[in-house]
## 1
Amino acid sequence: SAVISQKPSRDICQRGTSLTIQCQVDSQVTMMFWYRQQPGQSLTLIATANQGSEATYESGFVIDKFPISRPNLTFSTLTVSNMSPEDSSIYLCSVPLAGGRGQETQYFGPGTRLLVL
Amino acid sequence: DQQVKQNSPSLSVQEGRISILNCDYTNSMFDYFLWYKKYPAEGPTFLISISSIKDKNEDGRFTVFLNKSAKHLSLHIVPSQPGDSAVYFCAASVGEGTYKYIFGTGTRLKVLA
């Protein structure tokens, strides 16, 4: 397994401001993923962050709104820019991992709970 | 368009009985499926997965069944324990190694002591 920490664990922000979420992994990984879970919704992949290259964004997500940094193989940040109440969500980072018996999976951090007023 | 659907938002089961959680998908290209469990204030934790070349995979108390013709998978937990009370998500992807998981909206399981 991997140990993943996220900071902050939760925050309350005013609309129009930006928040940067940090994700730290205890081992070197090539790919890191950022997800969003809006209230009552499923987890949705925002982007894939690879070290040394631009993040790859999924449909509906853009770099101007969710800039991502990946300075090394154990760390990434996601910024939620110019926030509105619709950005109120849980934001999670994850890394690819082999589960039991070699099953492919992702290992998730604890999440950052964001409320935008 | 929700490609992965969990139509039961909640389920209650008596301790010791079987819990059956269901998941339907619409994209016939999906060939790898996973189940995760999520406790409040924690990230999802991996339970079990299944490739489309199989129709069943077991790991301890957890068994996943895949019916490709019906585009349906289910997670069986036997026997259910109070510690199993959590939200369960199914997820699907096209090809192993892509890590492009599409998640369902989750089913909240409550195991009653």
Note: Chain A touches chain B at residues 4, 9, 31, 33, 40-45, 48, 92, 94, 96-97, 99-101, 103-111, 113 (CB under 8 Å).
## 2
Amino acid sequence: AQTVTQSQPEMSVQEAETVTLSCTYDTSESDYYLFWYKQPPSRQMILVIRQEAYKQQNATENRFSVNFQKAAKSFSLKISDSQLGDAAMYFCALVVGGSRLTFGEGTQLTVNP
Amino acid sequence: SAVISQKPSRDICQRGTSLTIQCQVDSQVTMMFWYRQQPGQSLTLIATANQGSEATYESGFVIDKFPISRPNLTFSTLTVSNMSPEDSSIYLCSVEAGGGETQYFGPGTRLLVL
């Protein structure tokens, strides 16, 4: 079975600053995918970034980047130049081939002007 | 990626009634998923719906309570049957698209049961 843990229920950041959201996971498989999803107040789940476990290079998408540490089973999300629109609940998620997506409990991010 | 729509976007229902939620995707997909998100919580998978076969339900979810249809590769429905206030949640459908087992989500259906 897979587990995903987000130890920060809430985080806050000043506009234009950088914030890092933490995520750890557990799986016995060597091939899997990791994701960060954003859920604003509209409740739409929006894919932020994806990381393939077999790739050593950390994924980046504009202001969003990850620090993927496979040995430590850690997958943190860094948001640079934070904007008011980044305020949302962020979910870390894991999928192992053919199985269901396992979500963490989420981190509520507040962006202060 | 995929563009997904859900109907209705929200509803208020009386206990004991049933509601059918529709999920439409703009391209043909093999796997569709239904999730429930209870207030203040993370997402929980209800079932996986593949076209041409019976849906596969997760532990704690049964077909009598959450019947699912998957008539073609772009459409699915989830029915919440004999509703109680505990069924008040957001229900989301998702599809696997774009490779890498990536799931894209619909906008969700907010259900309140009185």
Note: Residues 94 and 100 of chain A are 8 Å apart (CA to CA).
